[in-house]
Design a protein that fits this description.
Elements: H1 4-28, H2 30-35, H3 42-45, H4 48-51, H5 53-59, E1 67-71, H6 79-86, E2 91-97, H7 106-121, H8 123-126, E3 130-134, E4 148-154, H9 157-163, H10 166-176, E5 177-188, H11 196-202, H12 207-217, E6 220-225, H13 255-261, E7 266-272
Parallel strand pairs: 1-2, 1-4, 2-3, 4-5
Antiparallel strand pairs: 5-7, 6-7
Helix pairs in contact: 10-12
């Protein structure tokens, strides 16, 4: 019968082997390594269970040597993954909601300031981020035209209904991409046929409407993924999609109920710029 000491030693060796295997796997998969990076903000990583960054970015076909533009990165949730991932071989553009144009919202200004501070605070991982301004029709050059391999937008399209520049946004994405480049869209999904008025109110977007915006800009629809689907989301809440986490607009009211539902049901769509 083995001694307690030998059992403990075997257990420690087994744990060490698992750790070494995990490190080796991350070296082989730099995207997984970026997602597991210790420099990420703790409250951001807590949302990986809802946002599925590894599966989502794999679906969009990201590679570490690409030029990638993220649209309206907010406080940098995806930036903290994409910038380190692309740092050595690729290029990452953060196309922020322009904070210095007339009529810029307080949120745009606050997000821009927070993002720039986050970049300045971590030059090791974020020092090569290129920040550009996006505000159609004045500011639409989010990178040198025709140089991007991938443009990504996460949960932004509903915001553009408020300013009425949703088509101009998609046109800017088309302009930025190379022929054959990919546009990746993740957005709260409304029931089919939802009106524009209800989309503005609820934050949920009709999938066909987004496909039409992309098609009008010149894109070809390529594929969709179920990775960010949430069948528990009924889309009928007092404060629209903001009732659910992470916003939890109702505060303590029915908080446990909405936490149990989780974040919204989201479409995950891939479009391609024709020409290659």
């Amino acid at each position: 019968m083995p001694s307690t000491l030998s059992v403990r030693a075997a257990l420690l060796l087994g744990l060490a082997a698992v750790a070494v295997s995990a490190v080796a796997a991350q070296r082989q998969d730099p995207l997984a390594a970026a997602i597991a990076g210790s420099s990420r903000t703790a409250k951001f990583t807590a949302r990986d269970q809802y946002r599925h960054p590894l599966e989502t970015l794999r679906f969009f076909g990201l590679r570490p040597n690409q030029t990638v533009v993220e649209i309206w990165p907010g406080r940098g949730w995806y930036m903290e993954i994409l910038a380190p991932y692309l740092r050595e071989q690729g290029k990452y553009y953060a196309a922020i909601e322009a904070p210095d144009v007339p009529g810029a919202s307080k949120e745009a200004k606050d997000n821009a300031a927070a993002l720039r501070k986050r970049i300045a605070d971590d030059p090791t991982h974020l020092g090569k981020v290129i920040v550009t301004d996006l505000h159609p029709p004045q500011l639409t050059e989010i990178c040198p035209p025709g140089t991007a391999d991938v443009v990504l937008t996460f949960r932004n399209v509903h915001n553009w209904l408020e300013t009425g520049d949703q088509q101009a946004q998609f046109n800017a994405f088309f302009k930025a991409l190379k022929p054959g480049g990919v546009l990746g869209v993740v957005e709260h999904r409304a029931r089919a046929g939802t009106s524009l008025g209800e989309m503005r109110k609820s934050g949920y977007m009709d999938e066909d409407y987004i496909r039409k915006l992309a098609a009008t800009a010149g894109f070809r629809f390529d594929a969709q993924s179920p990775v960010n689907n949430n069948p528990q989301d009924t889309r009928d809440y007092p404060q629209g999609v903001w009732t659910l986490p992470p916003t939890l607009a109702l505060g303590a009211t029915d908080r446990d109920k909405y936490l149990a539902i989780g974040e919204s049901d989201r479409m995950t769509l891939r479009f391609v710029k024709p020409g290659r």
